[in-house]
Specification:
The protein is α/β, with parallel strands linked by helices. The protein has 16 helices and 14 strands.
Length: 417
Amino acid sequence: MLTTDKMDIIPEKWYNIIPDLPEPLSPPRDNNRDSSSIDLLNRIIPKEVLRQEFTVRRFEPIPQEVIEGYEQIGRPTPLIRARNMERALDYGGKIFLKFEGATVTGSHKINTALPQAYYAKNEGIGSVVTETGAGQWGTATALASSLYGMKSKIFMVRTSYDQKPLRKQIMSLYGADVSASPSSETEFGRRILSSDPRHLGTLGIAISEAVEYALKNDARYMLGSVMNSVVTHQSVIGLETRKQLEIAGEYPDAMIGCVGGGSNFSGFTFPFIPDGDDIEYIASTAEEVPKFTHGTYKYDFIDTAGILPSLRMYSLGADFVPPGIYAGGLRYHGAAPTLSMLIKLGKIRAEDVSQAEVIDALRFFANHQGIVAAPESGHAIASAMRYANLHRTEKKTIVVNISGHGLMDMKIFDGEK
């Protein structure tokens, strides 16, 4: 059973930003295929997840079994006052950390994996499939499917598959069948390998392989980021943060998080968006994958093969192949349409951080807060340090989302590529 304090913090409903957006969200667009995008999504996505994808309801009830699952995997995650960081930066305000690395899988990804697996199980599904970049999403999918008695197949981007063998091992421990992508197991993967046998892989390619696998093997596809149903599930982060700040008698002046597809940042910040314009929101992205600063706001493919419908979002192009940076979760070419819209309208500011600055920020953070953060989260930490240095004497309250731990990413400090 949940203790009283946990019941007070873990929300009973997810927040859906769609009715609170400044303008209507552009719908998905078909890619000139034989069947409509809705027909395709109906074949591969659990029905309740698909319903949540297109709902305009502001709040979605969280099933009691999922709430209990959240408690079992470590929710609520802690909100920590980063006093050591404040002192080391000589910062006159306050810095708080929402530490999603405290979940059993070590990142925020389990927040949506649990409900998606729960809904799949309730439909009698026996197996699920997905892609993963750095491995956090694959790990969450593997555990969630295992908890609900389903098999899982994971296509892991090859550069991360080679860099992060422990991620593959933990997914295998949870019962997943893990393959490097591009792989020889799908038609699309074989096509990529035929032109470049040493292809580093991309999330766009891995998504295409996972969707092809789902269509041919009667599996259900698990959505890892970008889509609004995932952003809605991730709102548990921001809803908890709001309650924890209220208990502490605090309110943010700035909220900072990293962005790959956008689910952790959006889940963290969106519950605060209806409050107005008093909060500064900073989306920290990889300089090597500058989707907001050098990408285009347009309709583009979710996956490289163009199997799934197109979304209107910031994108570098579905065929973009990023460098093999350790922040594998930030290598996706696009971003959530809801987040993209808010950045386009100037409600959220984006900034790029290089891997070199990330490494410095991770070292600083580990030495002063004791937390070994994920390379993805290192971007948010670097942006928070920039912000604190710029506003040193203004006594602003900064809240940073540490989206995951980096205990399996230690090679980033070896200077290896």
